[in-house]
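Worked example 3. Consider a protein that binds zinc ion.
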Amino acid sequence: MSSDPARFIRRTPPGEDRERLTCGECGYIAYENPKIVVGSVVGVDGKVLLCRRAIEPRRGFWTIPAGYMELGETVEEGARREALEEACAELRLDGVLAVYSIARIGQVQILFRAGLATPGFAAGPESLEVRLFAWEEIPWDDLAFPSVHWVLQAWREAGDAPLGAPRGNPAGDLRGTTPLKAAAL
Amino acid sequence: MSSDPARFIRRTPPGEDRERLTCGECGYIAYENPKIVVGSVVGVDGKVLLCRRAIEPRRGFWTIPAGYMELGETVEEGARREALEEACAELRLDGVLAVYSIARIGQVQILFRAGLATPGFAAGPESLEVRLFAWEEIPWDDLAFPSVHWVLQAWREAGDAPLGAPRGNPAGDLRGTTPLKAAAL
Ligand SMILES: [Zn+2]
Ligand SMILES: [Zn+2]
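Given these inputs, the predicted complex is written out as structure tokens:
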């Protein structure tokens, strides 16, 4: 198999019922699975912790601590690892606040409601800046992704009450297919 | 890249902080991501719908309708597709009942509470048999996977009440690392 994606072609392997990305050179089948993003809305005294991204995509924009789950960890471990990496923050997870599907890019986001397990946070290597925002201070026009907008709204609506079933995608984008630039941020 | 896994070696790519499975021939990096299983506990008049597996692993054992999420669909679409494939059942999803991590095999399971959207079900090609079980009829010794046991307990505990935050792994197997044969079934 080549690492050159141009050498991959779509074809239906024997015994399967859909096309798979297959290497035209050696026949290797690259099963394309949805990827899992794990992250947390971290509340501290009613404020929310946001990180300004030091990396692409969306460098300079604000997001919650979140990233791709690694093999061998649990969703909870992944969410805590991301907060440690991006915000040097140790989290206490409260439960799953939202499960979003971003079908456009094959992503599932499992997002927790969390607090700090120990005081303190700081910008990790993937963040330019980490700070707490009161609700009315949130930089809505400078959020990195539509789902950050969605989950902050879900967090606000949940308040301090016990969590219900996780929120799903908003009615306006049930499949997560709105292009990034057209998405209401 | 070869499709022969023996040609893959573990090494740390430039700029990364962990080992990745890399093709010894061409350098292709096979990012190993956790895979998402989507499924549903389908309740019908207080009974639960189970499928007897026609395929390996665990052929002949009972499970809920569930399977790997495909790229391009949402978690809800995936859960409904699996029920259609395995039980010819059209579901009405009620919400996420449980999110389990099976770290041993790199799996995350997103499992819904559901009912039938339209009456009727039947064994699909991946099932030997599909039937409804009253709680006291559930074949606990013949369930296919530990998580089927877990989620049926969660479903029973939730009853007909509004769902709370999704259940996670049970305290006895927080990371989902108990080998299948040792797991309490
Ligand atoms: Zn190849
Ligand atoms: Zn190769």
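Take a moment to read the result before moving on. The pocket of zinc ion (ligand 2) is lined by residues A 1; B 1-2, 23, 25-26, 28 (CB under 6 Å). The first strand of chain B starts at residue 8 and ends at 11.
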